[in-house]
Amino acid sequence: MKNSTFITRVVLKNYKSIAVCDVRLRPLTFLVGRNGAGKSNFLDSLRFVADALNLDLGHAIRDRGGINDVRRRSRGHPNHFSIRLEFVLPEGLTGHYAFRIGTRPPGGYEVQTEECQIQNEQLLTPEEYFRVESGTVTDTSVEVAPAAASDRLYLVNASGLPEFRPVYDAFSQMGFYNLNPDKIRDLQAPDPGDVLLRDGSNLTSVFTKLSPIVKKDTEEYLSTVVPGIHTVDVKGFGPKETLEFRQDVAGDTHRWRFLANNMSDGTLRVLGILVALFQGDNDAQKRVTLVGIEEPETALHPGAVAVLLDGLRDAAHRTQVIITTHSPELLDDKHLDVNSILAVEAHDGDTVIAPVDEASRSVVQDQLFTAGELLRSNQLQPDPAALPAAKEKQLSLFDFDKPKSAKAKSRGKYK
Question: Most buried of 76, 215, 330, 407 (most Cβ within 10 A)?
Fold first, then answer.
């Protein structure tokens, strides 16, 4: 599989049910666990970053019920949460972006620390960086830095600088989906169609912008899942529009036309998933860097899950894909890379996320069992050796306390 990985590592502290998490991501990553284990909370931490950049930090926090519903609740009463994302960009840039959000009474918040470091390893250019503490820029590689504020993420301001714009664009162009068939059925108002909305409520606009080749591939995947469907088009109704499906009907040589309001939940969800995976194919500047989908197998016949897996693998050649699932059928493929699975469990209210334990990994790699068979018997467990709980206090999200690089020092821009 082509390495489409954008986010290589995720470190979380005190985010919702997750006390501490330190995991590596692959081009296609499966978050596997029971209902309520915390799979959605992990995916939501990445969506939080996109929401805070695309909208604003206050909206991202309010949309989740306020700061007290975002930070983890426990006896220790943590008064902050932290996110660190390590990344690689097509331009040859690597680096990390991290921030810590703290609570302020009553029900307020502030960005206590935020930093970004970027290095072009191919050109060996000096690194670019900034560090902000409580609304003050304390360290940066740029000559003239924008002002900072303690109630918003500084990367939004820094996106006006060419050094940091690629990082902002990449994180703001992530898409996360929990598709709603009723929203897809509704007549939809046209919009620019750059990114599919979380519930699929602008699916017609995004579908219209697919290239002819990708549109055909999408229809072929859909027809394999739902036999008889041949084409999908967008049909206008005054100022709004809807989807029109052409499908075989027994006893008639001509294919019948069915509007979205006549199609099943499963059909609409599958189409939404396919569009989410392949959107932005004809514009490299608007490519969705990461797609996260919650339980894509919902309302799908078990016999069609293999087709869904093919679609996920196909999409992962061009964009990073993360899905949450508790479907054994989706993991039944004997060629599935067990290293792409992160096992998720809830221990005394805390979410634990780690690669699959060594014994299960060996069994799958030797093709004695599939990952799906182990999941059915509740044998896909997080590897205790990979859990960061024992080193929670030593787990660092920020790098500015480390020795600065010789190349950066040579520019004389560190304070």
Answer: 330
